[in-house]
UniProtKB/TrEMBL annotation:
Residue span(s) of domain 4Fe-4S ferredoxin-type: 424-453
Species classification: Bacteria, Deltaproteobacteria, Bradymonadales, Microvenatoraceae, Microvenator
Keywords: FAD, Flavoprotein, Oxidoreductase
Descriptive protein name: 4Fe-4S ferredoxin-type domain-containing protein
GO MF entry, a single one: oxidoreductase activity, acting on CH-OH group of donors
Organism: Microvenator marinus
Length: 758
């Protein structure tokens, strides 16, 4: 495993016969420890040369030859303020007679547009030795992991056996065939390399051990592949989604810049660089651009036109969901979390539900020392701006879906026990919605006001640029001051591109999993960094009714909600997943599975989530991938059992005949007595199949660097010009869908940052 260390050198150059003081700050990525014998280390950093290079981003290589030549050879490349290509070449001599001087003294030559323009030296100050020795961090930012090899013949045969064991033909469910095999293999091939290897290992372990836990893991891509087959979808009436909506190219689209049009190495300058285009980065970028600042957005995902939101659902999952929707959390329950990887981030694949920040939560933050602008009346200044931009309004009755009516009837049966119970259409950000039922796969009509349909176009119309398909490898630091970023990616031809951006302010908006990783890779080390993770653990039930519920795919997936049923930390909201995902969630196989999948028009889905505490962590793993850990605590488990009991009672009172709750070891729920008993069942976390939808808090805002990562102005403690504005900076779980809160905090942050820049 590699690691990264940080080095500062200062000295003097004579350029065009003029003496100039110089300093470089370097982040040095060591791919593996053997590179310290003979190898190449990648360099990113910042260079300052008096009267020439004012804190410009640089990149380069350090070639180490301890064994053969006993030298360290540096090449540092940067673009000067006039856009000229410049480089510094230098060598440290490690001969035995001058080992100490050789390790600290770098003789240099300076080139501009290939012409030698000067020379000089840089030196490592031995007074910085202790901080240098404390700088190494495990891992590097090298994100392009090896491409996974295809499956071996024994892998394919094991997969074929598992498919035939888990799925049998039904009235509408087709028999397993080569279609199922090819679709499943395609799904697996779209996983990241480490996930592919993990899947094949799990498959062989299942065939050997027949573990129920492994069965659910192994069956997931099989179910998605089989029940996404066109012949099955046609049999149950699901449309093909093969009529893409065309939209005209507007002038602001020219501000979208993919890696294909970039040089192999290029540098730009701006006032503010914003890393990420989701609920945090996009509103902030739009606000600052409209205030007249030069803004650059950098997004790892690509821009998606409306035409891209068509075709097979599995293809869209692999295109827009990170890790094809199989991002997992190390937990005491098999916890998965969907996040977006596209311009617009997770707002593109969320349900569209749009609640403001609960007043009770704002009161909690005030008690933690937050300022008066977090008083509900004051905070509403930004929330109202968000509501206007998103067009927030209750879901329209025409597209609630039949399940909403069943839930309404069931909820009323509980009113005597829960007089404060409320139920009704949920507030949404989708004016003009026509019930396509595809919110979580990207709205095919653009009715949902995700940031790619709202804040990003506003930013680009105001002059911002958005660089897509590039992942920021690190923030460039000049001591404690952020001065830019370096981003890398591959164009469609597989050519590596590198973009260096110099900026007066750097805003990290990579999401709750990505932002702490980027800070760690940039040398930031704070006690609370990557901690305090909350995720709104959620469960869903699948209920069968005696009569048809129509076509659930022609309705809003999350249209209706119930609140005030007992503990306020539990919020009940609708959901709908396509047949392949529903089949995986049922946890049933063969005839038991077919009893559901042959009659999907009589099946309804509903769920709930729990407001949790920040008990999880995010830390950097191999290749810069986040390793996320989270524990379902006894308190949260108790709430989940209560939620299951209440939700099952609502569904039964609404007419359901049986309910699949997805709890291992417990069968279908068919009576109120059985439903109420769930709250006291001996259910363990590992019996559940929960989801996590709203990760927050890993770069929490607060008043102290001991317990938080950013201050009340979103600036990272101990730094200058470095900010985090996204779900990571939200200090606690909300108990409601968080996009409006994140956007409101982003607009507040933009106002504060504009003051700082002015």
């Amino acid at each position: 495993m590699g690691f990264t260390f940080f080095e500062t050198m200062s000295g003097e150059f004579r350029i065009d016969h003029k003496p100039m003081k110089a300093t470089v700050w370097l982040a040095c990525e060591v791919p593996q420890i053997e590179a310290f014998n003979d190898g190449v280390i990648r360099l990113d950093g910042v260079i300052h040369i008096d009267s020439w290079a004012d804190d410009l981003p640089l990149s380069g290589e350090l070639r180490i030859s301890f064994l053969r030549k006993k030298t360290l050879e540096y090449e540092l490349r940067f673009d000067d303020h006039e856009g000229r290509k410049c480089r510094i070449e230098g060598r440290k001599d490690l001969g035995i007679t001058r080992r100490l001087l050789g390790m600290t003294h770098l003789n240099c030559e300076v080139f501009c547009e290939s012409s030698l323009v000067g020379s000089g030296y840089l030196e490592f100050d031995l007074r910085d030795l202790m901080s240098f020795l404390g700088s190494p961090q495990a891992g590097t930012s090298a994100r392009h992991l090896p491409i996974a090899a295809g499956p071996e013949p024994e892998d394919v045969e094991a997969l074929r056996m598992a498919m035939e064991e888990l799925i049998s033909a039904g009235a509408k469910v087709p028999a397993v065939s080569e279609k199922t095999l090819s679709r499943t293999l395609k799904l697996i091939s779209q996983l990241p390399p480490h996930a592919q290897k993990g899947y094949w290992a799990a498959l062989h372990a299942y065939n050997a051990l027949r573990s129920d836990g492994l069965k659910r893991v192994v069956s997931l891509p099989i179910m998605i592949g089989h029940f996404g087959r066109p012949d099955y979808l046609d049999a149950i009436g699901v449309p093909a989604y093969d009529n893409p909506v065309r939209e005209p190219r507007e002038r602001w689209h020219q501000q979208l810049v993919g890696p294909e049009v970039l040089e192999n190495e290029s540098t730009i300058e701006c006032d503010v660089v914003v890393v990420g285009t989701g609920a945090g980065g996009a509103p902030l970028a739009a606000s600052l651009a409209e205030k007249g600042f030069a803004v650059a957005l950098v997004e790892e995902g690509r821009w998606a036109d409306r035409a891209d939101f068509s075709g097979e659902l599995e293809t869209r999952i692999s295109k827009f969901w990170r890790d094809s929707g199989l991002s997992t959390i190390v937990s005491n329950a098999p916890l998965m979390v969907p996040t977006g990887r596209v311009v617009g981030g997770t707002t593109v694949i969320n349900s569209g539900t749009s609640f403001g920040t609960p007043h009770a939560v704002l009161k909690e933050w005030r008690e933690l020392g937050f300022g008066s602008d977090f008083e509900p009346d004051n905070f509403s200044e930004w929330t109202q701006k968000v509501a206007r931009e998103l067009g927030i309004a209750p879901a329209q009755d025409a597209w609630l879906g039949a399940i909403a009516g069943r839930v309404a009837v069931g909820a009323e049966h509980l009113r005597d026990r829960f007089p404060e119970l409320e139920h009704g259409p949920l507030p949404r950000n989708a004016p003009g919605c026509d019930g396509q039922g595809l919110c979580t796969l990207g709205c095919p009509t653009g009715a949902k006001r995700s940031t790619d349909q709202s804040w990003v176009p506003r930013a680009l119309k105001a002059g911002a640029q958005c660089f897509t398909g590039l992942r920021v490898a690190r923030v460039l630091m000049r001591g404690d001051k952020a001065v830019g970023v370096v981003a890398r990616g591959l164009d469609e031809f597989g050519v590596h591109k590198e973009l260096r951006i110099k900026a007066r302010a750097v805003v990290i908006s990579c999401g709750t999993f990505g932002s702490p990783i980027l800070l760690q890779e940039s040398g930031i080390n704070l006690p609370a960094l990557g901690k305090n993770l909350s995720v709104h653990p959620a469960l869903g039930v699948i209920a069968e009714f005696p009569h048809s519920l129509g076509e659930p795919w022609r309705a809003i997936p999350q249209s209706y909600g119930v609140h005030g049923v007992g503990d306020s930390r539990i919020r009940y909201e609708g959901f709908y997943v396509p047949p392949g995902l529903m089949a995986a969630a049922l946890g049933e196989y063969n005839d038991a599975l077919n009893s559901w999948m042959d009659s999907v028009n009589r099946v309804g889905q509903f769920g709930f989530m729990v407001r949790d505490r920040g008990v999880g962590t995010v830390r950097r793993g191999p290749g810069g991938r986040p390793i996320v850990t989270y524990k379902i605590t006894p308190d949260v488990l108790s709430l989940m059992k209560i939620g299951l009991a209440n939700l099952c009672e609502i569904m039964l009172a609404g007419g359901a005949e049986r309910i699949n709750i997805g709890v291992r070891g417990l069968g279908d729920i068919a009576s109120v007595d059985h439903a109420r008993a769930l709250s006291s069942e001996g259910i363990k976390p590992w019996h559940l199949s929960p989801m996590a939808f709203h990760p927050l808090g890993t770069c929490a805002m607060g008043v102290s660097a001991k317990s938080a990562v950013v201050d009340l102005r979103h600036q990272v403690f101990g730094t200058e010009g470095l900010y985090v504005v996204d779900g990571a900076s939200v200090p606690s779980s909300l108990g409601v869908n968080p996009q409006v809160t994140i956007m409101s905090m982003a607009l507040r942050a933009a106002d504060l940052l504009a003051q700082d820049l002015s």
